[in-house]
Amino acid sequence: MMSSTLRIKPPAPQVVNEQLAQADALCRERGSNLTPLRRQVLELVIRQGRPVGAYDLLDSLRTQGRGSSPPTVYRALEFLQQEGLVHRLPAQNTYMACSHPHHHHRGLIFTCSRCGQALELETPDLFGMLEDYARPHGFEISDDSLEISGVCPFCQEASRDAR
Amino acid sequence: MMSSTLRIKPPAPQVVNEQLAQADALCRERGSNLTPLRRQVLELVIRQGRPVGAYDLLDSLRTQGRGSSPPTVYRALEFLQQEGLVHRLPAQNTYMACSHPHHHHRGLIFTCSRCGQALELETPDLFGMLEDYARPHGFEISDDSLEISGVCPFCQEASRDAR
DNA sequence: TCATGTAATGTTATAGTATTACATTACGTT
DNA sequence: AACGTAATGTAATACTATAACATTACATGA
User: Fold this and answer.
1) What residue spans of A69-134 are helical by DSSP H?
2) Higher pLDDT among residues A4 and A159, named by residue
3) In chain B, which residues from 48 to 67 place their CB closer than 7 Å to nucleic acid strand C?
4) Which member of A58, A91, B70, B111 has the greatest number of CB atoms within 10 A?
């Protein structure tokens, strides 16, 4: 993972707390169990403000005094994904907080292959189109987000500067 | 990887040969170097008729008497991807032959999370829409295919039967 | 011819990502 | 108290991918 960017700041503590409160509310409504451990992992993901690798999360957990091993973080991430609180980005093997867990919009996520930064969009037409393509083949979509890789504007600029 | 399906047969030898001939032609045109090793890997991918893992390819290479190690197959796959002959499916860590390497259409690939089977479609509108979403954010798309996970009709049926 | 440069491949080791399997704990219900 | 279930702890291992360096093959020009 070890790539980083200074361009995007981590969210302000207040924003983090809002997102956590929203997660609390959602899970309470649904009767799902946002345990302290799961909540702690979610907080780490949210604070990051960008996609983060599972083993980075594991390091953070250890720093925070949790006796942790890979299954700890993978299980928490699995739960958080089921609840729609976290997206997995398969092309980068990373995880990021969902930016609108309250609606059930399925989103599009652009990830930069240079710096790893990600941008989640609400794309009202996209999944409808995908369903239209899928239907005639009897295929049932289960992904709730779609990752597409490319180059973010900052890294494009960096390329130009290098030349 | 080790999942399998009997529903989709591997392509007939004749089809395999056509696809290989097409790859030969494409690379000749472009002046790119489809070496025996790369061609052998491509053939393995094509014969499979479905997504394959890199280490499965490695095993096959060894069976065929190539003294091979991971970099061998990963390097070949990298070349084949650059040439648009093979797609990587990040959600499954697999590789599959592109079904239309001659046009430069960027395609949509449905993958079944149960059986691993994949279906590549030509989707005339899709990447245009994605570009439209990306443009206002200055994001430049580099993926040439989009993987989306779900459940194929056969596995849906299997689920119903199980109940 | 033969030096030299470059692309491709070989080889060893290691890094990075994820899961299996089994033990333990916490806690609610009978 | 006994039991069942969900969650977590722990050790081991499987799976995926890359780094680093050596070697080979072959084209080109001195």
Assistant:
1) 70-82, 126-134
2) A159
3) 66-67
4) B111
